[in-house]
TrEMBL record:
GO biological processes: proteolysis; secondary metabolic process
Subcellular location field: Secreted
Gene: SCPL13
Organism of this sequence: Helianthus annuus (Common sunflower)
A Pfam family that the UniProt record links to this protein: Peptidase_S10
Signal sequence extent: 1-18
Primary subcellular site in the record, as a coarse category: secreted
Taxon lineage: Eukaryota, Viridiplantae, Streptophyta, Embryophyta, Tracheophyta
Keywords: Carboxypeptidase, Disulfide bond, Glycoprotein, Hydrolase, Protease, Signal
SUPFAM superfamilies hit by this protein: alpha/beta-Hydrolases
Family of the protein in this entry: Belongs to the peptidase S10 family.
GO molecular function: acyltransferase activity, transferring groups other than amino-acyl groups; serine-type carboxypeptidase activity
Protein name in UniProt: Peptidase S10, serine carboxypeptidase, alpha/Beta hydrolase
Amino acid sequence: MMHWHLIIIIILIICSHASTSTSANSGGRVEYLPGFQGPLPFYLETGYVGVDENEDVQLFYYFIRSESDPDHDPLMLWITGGPGCSSITGLLYEIGPIQFEAMHYNGSLPTLTLTPNSWTKMASIIFLDIPVGTGFSYARTKWASRSTDNLLSERAYEFMRKWFEGHPEFVSNPFYVGGDSYSGVPVPIITHLISDGNEAANLPYINLKGYVLGNPSTFSEESNYKIRFANGMGLISDELYKSLFHTCHGEYRSQYISASNIGCRQNLKLYEECIDGIFADHVLEPYCSDPMRLIKLPTQKLVDEYRPLSSSDCRVYRTHLVYYWILEASEALHTRKGTIKEWKRCSDLNFTKTVYDVRPYHQNLSKKGYRSLIYSGDHDMIIPHQSTQAWIRDLNYSVIDQWRSWKLNGQIAGYTESYSNMMTYATVKGGGHTAPEYKPEECVAMFKRWISNQPL
């Protein structure tokens, strides 16, 4: 009798472990999405991969196969910034194959349409919700819910190794890590971890080729370049710019300015008055009331406030259509009910910043010979293009293709420069934070040329 009890206990333990393992690394195809008419004309897969100790961190992803030649085209891991903004931002608003239709919101389910400017035309892309607590990613314990720049990067590396176990057909494809905004911090770290893992003979071997960064956060002093940007855009006068530089000595972050430096603080107050009402994501776009307030309004109130504004009048409102869509789409996306309290496009996280300067990572990756594409929307005041050019100069590599324009359809689309460390820098003329949202046609042309090893 005791033997039967023991056997039953063992069977229960095995079944429990098998169930845990299956749920920890699961994915399934999505053929239909609410708001899109008919079956999706591309391959979309969503799922979870368990990482960290006891797989207490469950990371959610959206995977889209290349629409050209998925057997041979590059594969890219894409991480949206924040930290804490869901990768659905990249999928629906920046580089993915579908987007919300630009129309007045009428209270109905937002409509999805195909976009001709998807990066998935020439690459397979994994859009990952990371760090934990972002989008549909969740933690099973309170301890696992914490995150830092280093933890984020280590979990992303573990995610990729486990994802490849379930998708071995992609192991030999050229692999890139990509992201924008705050992802300028973790992307070089993740790339470095993969490189080190390959050198340590970790399996599976990842065919790492390089990384892609748009409007990237890189070092803590970059915010000082906002003053220079504002002057260049005519938002502040030359006289105020010179006075700011003279009184503040090039350091404009309040925590580093002495309380006794009255002149600097007065000039900064004048600067803040000048840019009050400027939309920092794109200085030419209209400044709109806080869209986060709108998602808390009753539907009819939202309709009343949104109706006078088209997506071109107030682009930022369109980014919040996803809140009304996701309520209908979560089941189609194979998400796990009850694992998160409330879905947010950008979440408040239990996150601690631990890395303040990733220039050393860029330097090390350059020495190892990895390719990189760094681009800036030139109307972005959050991460000004001047700060990005500054840290690239700090790497001190020689120029092999001097500053010049790059064109699309016979028109200047931006400016570019290439360096001996296989790094290409490009501005996107008229782009904001981030560039593909504002200039999708130019950005897909830029990416296609670069990923194909062609000059911009």
